[in-house]
C-alpha cells in the first residue's frame, strides 16, 4: 500500500514515517506521488486541516491520527475521505497498519463518540435538509429513484413511462435532471451512483 504521511509538525511527520518504515505492507511516498492512503497526523485536527487533506489526497482514502477531532467536524471529515480515526497517545505500528489496510479496502474504524456524532449528523441532514426538499442521502428524490430502479431492472423508457403513468418525455426529463444535478454521465452511471449510495438494492 502506498502511504503518504501529512503533518504540519515535522516531528509528528518524522515520527509517523519512522513508525511505518519497518512495515513490509507499506510503501511510503512523498507529496506529489500517488498514494492509496493518506495519514494525517495532528495533535488537534481543525476544519482547515481537513480541507487541506481533501486538497492533497486525490482519490486516496484517509486515516487521521490525532489527540482531538471535534464531533462537529465529522461530516467534513467524511466528505474529505477520512475512513478511520486513531488516538495519537495509544498509537502502535500494528494499529496504524491495520487502519491503513482497512481504509484501502473501504473499512472504517472510528471511536464510538465520533461514530455516534457522525450518525447524528447524518440523521439531522436527512431530517432538516434533504427530506423537506424531497431528497434522500443519495441526492436523488423518490421519483428519480423510481425511474432508476426500473432502469436497473432492464425496462425501456416507454415501459417505465407506462408503469409509472408518466409520459416518455417526463421519464427523460427526470433522468436528465438527476444526471445534470449530480454530474452523472449516463443512465448506467446514474444507476451505479444510486446503488453505491445504498438507495437501490
Describe this structure in words.
This protein has 201 residues and is α/β, with parallel strands linked by helices. The chain has 2 domains: 2-124, Rossmann fold; 134-196, Arc Repressor Mutant, subunit A (Orthogonal Bundle). Helices cover 51% and strands 16% of the residues. It is built from 9 helices and 5 strands; from the N terminus they run βαββαβαβαααααα. The protein has helices spanning 10-20, 47-56, 74-79, 93-104, 112-130, 142-152, 157-164, 168-182, 187-196; strands spanning 2-6, 27-29, 37-45, 61-69, 82-87. A 5-stranded parallel beta sheet has the order 2-1-3-4-5, sandwiched between helices. Strand 1 (2-6), helix 1 (10-20) and strand 2 (27-29) form a beta-alpha-beta unit. Helix 6 crosses helix 8, helix 6 (142-152) crosses helix 9 (187-196) and helix 7 (157-164) packs across helix 8. It is elongated.
